[in-house]
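Regression report. Comparing outputs from two consecutive submissions.

Submission 1:
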Amino acid sequence: MRAKAGRVATVAGTAVLTGGVLTDSFTGPGVVAAVATAGLGLAANIKILRAPTAVKATAVAVYAAPHVGCMAVLVGERLAAARPVSVLVQAGIVVLWTGATWWVRPGLLARELVDETAAQEVAQVAEDGQAATDVVVPAQATYASPQAHWWADQVATEDGIAPQTVLLEFQQVSEQCVAAVIGSAQRGVPVPDISTARLSALLDVPEELIEIGLVPGRGAGVRLLIVGQRPQPAGTAAKTTGTDEERWAEIAATAMPGVELVEVNTYELRKELT
């Protein structure tokens, strides 16, 4: 329907321009008709009026180009001298306008420009959405315990007390004492020196109650951290009670580990030794 309307408008324009070559009476009505046709055509082309900003002005200019050209030719015919050569030139311009409008079909070209730009914008949005879904979200670190999470967040940061370390094990020894095994985050790298003063300030624990030492049987990649008052061996307050074997077991547990009581002999101490 739009194609037929465009063809009819082209034929009508050619007729008006041809009349303008012959008489000046076509100039005024022809200009008014060109303006009206352009306005009505744009009003009916909602696609062009609602085109993306990037192409809207271009589409309107392409659509209105034949109408503006028609008005310019009409004015030129009005101002041209009435000579045979001039009439031939005017007729050639009319033929050129008709051929260009018929061949290019500005109305269809304007709509195709809008369609192409809209398709490009849709494709760009889809591409951006695909790119957003392709973004790899780094996996969140998982921790074996809340204490390990706290250590990573408060102590093992880049400028923290013990950077590049992890809390491997945590044990509540007693109400006043905890023990933890600290490891290096990188294999083959020793645990850095941990400032007991900074750890004391962070934990609000006296510095003398913080001890950092070796883990028996392990290398420099792990360290033992003890915070708090170490518990006393059970039964120290009652070493004078129980059998000889029980008392010796209590002593060996703290002072002589690995030593067993083989035989017990009782002697009367001389008065000078007591």
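Submission 2:
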Amino acid sequence: MSEAEEYALMFVRSWGEAVLRQAERARAMRKKFAVDDRNYERMEDWSPSEADLERNFRTLWAEEHTLVWSAYQLERWRARLHRERGQEAPSQDKVLATVRNALEHLDEAEFEEGGFAVARADRGNSGRSLRELPGGGLPIEVGGVLFGLIAPEEVEARALKIVSTIEDELERDAIEWYMEMKREEEREMRAISRQISSPPELGA
């Protein structure tokens, strides 16, 4: 194995493991976001505050952005590993690439009323990734269609699909840990759904 191939394999494994960790973080934050949003509407003493919801928004936005970035890096290093091995690189996931590029250039955007980021007219070709999104821009929102293009669960699914193709290059215990964690979280979400209609007793 050449030195370049060794480094490519190392980065594939690094980003593959990062995707597993980040997918768990993003899913946990989506759960907190949803639960706090429902409890806020109750307007009880124990309900989260508006500041709590704003903090949740900022955290979830960053977690989802980081998941996209991690998945994109994994895809690029997987392609590099294939090239180092003399194999044809897998086709690029254009959705991940477009979303990642739009997020990278978000600081160059204009922001319209209602939270919609569009490419600045004076930046020429640098705003192309924003223009390629549905509606020609990026909605600044969470909790629905992620970044105006795909559901959060689909970002995770796309990332995990990449991981599954190179799982022989990863530690199998990391894959097994993630799948068990996902099953456990699904059980917890079902339990929360049953309990959420019954607010906790004050002083409990």
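Expected: both submissions complete independently.
Actual: both completed, but the second showed a warning that disappeared on reload.
Relevant detail on submission 2: Residues 3-40 form the longest helix (38 residues).
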